Amino acid sequence: MFDPEDLVANPTVGPSFSDWAGFDPGRRRWLGAALGAGALAFLSPGIQAATPRPRISFDGIPVAVDDAVHVPVGYTAQVMYAWGDPVSDGPAFAPDASQSADDQAQQAGMHHDGMHYFALPPLAGRRNHGLMAINHEYTDDGLLHTDGMRTWTADKVRKSQAAHGVSVIEVVERDDGKWEVVRPSRFARRVTAYTPMRIAGPAAGHPWMRTEADPAGLVALGTLNNCANGHTPWGTYLTCEENLQAYFVHSGTIPTPLRRYGINERGFGYRWHEFDVRFDSQRHPNEANRFGWVVEIDPFDPTATPVKRTALGRFSHEGAAHAIAKDGRLVVYMGDDQRNEYIYKFVSRDAVDPKRRDGNRDLLDHGTLYVAKFGQDGNGEWIALTHGTNGLVAENGFASQAEVLIHTRQAGDRVSATMMDRPEWIAVHPRTGEVYCTLTNNNKRGGTTSNAVDGTTVLASAQPPVDATNPRAANSFGHIVRWREAAGDAASTRFEWDLFVQCGDPALDDPAKRGDIHGDLFGNPDGLAFDAQGRLWIATDISPTALNKGDFAGFGNNALLCADPVSAEVRRFLTGPRGSEITGPCFAPDGRTLFVNIQHPGENPGERNDPEHPKALSAWPDGSSGARPRSATLAIRRIDGGVVGT
Ligand code: FEO
Ligand code: CA
Ligand code: CA
Ligand code: CA
């Protein structure tokens, strides 16, 4: 196989800048110490003013409610990879969705979400050449099958599972700036909800991980609800399993640990359990324990078995953004996206080996998982979720580190972590090391009983009171929190935090709904990414139930915005088609292409389209020539070839 380790020495063709944030490819050393100066900026407004400010020179665009993608004057957006497009030289998309499950397993899945670009050596006559790993978060089974869910069969379950997971595609940028998927490609791959995965780390083999089909508890079938993502400095992809509960149905009495993860009696309409018995949670209660993990995939080796890294904890993972500690250890920040869940970070035991890729093969299996406790005074603390400490002992239900990890949420409850307003993506500033996290909304806060900090287990249904970090009851618009680790070291157990922005509409009567945005209106921040120069890109996910109605009437369709982290000024860069969510922002290594995913165009509040009227809300991207809307990856460039955002 091609070895991406060869790329490290050359920053122009190596993994993108963010792959190596903190690593100086020229001198082959980590820049940990250099981050220290930036650390002061958070503490002192005087020094903060001296922090280099990224230039944002496009004109923000207005809100839009039409069925189209809009970008600023001087930019162009190209549809590069849509649901059903072949990953390699397999079958083409069938506009009436008549492709088989086997066809779907060789095509782009549905509902593109987080993604990352991995550079390959240049090809003659091509500006950029790389691999993209792209998550397919979930399916709309109304759109996926020609007649939707009117009939239900084992083949439809198989096809739904094949439309989940991850795509790895090979892409090139031609000299005229157009991006193409390389077909055929020796790298191309689909990982689905039935691809075998190795279970690694402390929970591997634990009795709670064992099933009838896998009595050793070491090999799980598939990954699902792959929401946001991360990547490692050694060029692997991290795909994050979010709403595992959606796929299981548990008739009868549901064990408390499964309830804590949202497993219920009805499921969420996937109906997989009717033909794939492992999703019948009553019959196979441990199967749900095998989901909710971060999965590491080597995009450069299509034969490599994906690995579920249990040391990073089990919850509704949103993303996995990394930083490098001063001593070279890897730090991974992760949100648990449900109402009143927690923010975590993993600190590896060993330092990253920047010279030998293989030296990092098991790096994510050893380390400490922490959960965040935000103090009311702007200070915060990372509490270790380590067996034998902080009450994580057998008498409290944690007999080993495996049990702490399989029941990560309960461990967070035990140590009274701070209940957050739905943590979505996390992004680390490439120069200052400041960490930003979107908190998308929360309609389950503002309870008058202060049962959140009583030192014992907190029920998921409890409504915590407002607090300094989550200051609004019924937070319908969301906000962004940021923190800076003590001494500028990502491995610190203490941090300082503040609120970067509270979303809202200044035109609304209720002061609590007006927010404090400087610049263009946005709500329900979700996707989040820094570019190499420190511009913060924010993607929104206003739910189809709220979009362009009521308090959201002024927000338009979902959007991508660009913010200056110093001034907090925000400009709207892109608006999406009707019913879509914007997600996945990431960059080509030269910063001249921004990749964005348009997820679920045309989605209605039920999340299941009517196959009789599939284009009722949106016909994007194919318009009149297509039969149904499709999620797709966009490649966005400046027409003059300049760096995006400048
Ligand atoms: Fe899959 Fe929390 O968004
Ligand atoms: Ca999300
Ligand atoms: Ca969301
Ligand atoms: Ca969403």
Task: Describe this protein's structure.
The longest helix has 9 residues, at 35-43. It contains eight helices and 33 strands. The protein has a single domain, classed as Neuraminidase, CATH 2.120.10. The strands form seven sheets. A nine-stranded antiparallel sheet has the order 15-16-18-19-20-25-24-23-22, with no helix packed on it. The protein has a six-stranded mixed sheet with strand order 10-9-14-13-12-11, with no helix packed on it. Strand 4 and strand 5 form a beta hairpin. Residues 227-228, 318, 424, 526, 541 line the site of one calcium ion (CA). MU-OXO-diiron (FEO) binds next to loops.
Key structural traits:
nine-stranded antiparallel β-sheet; mainly beta; binds calcium ion; globular; binds MU-OXO-diiron; Neuraminidase; 646 residues; six-stranded mixed β-sheet
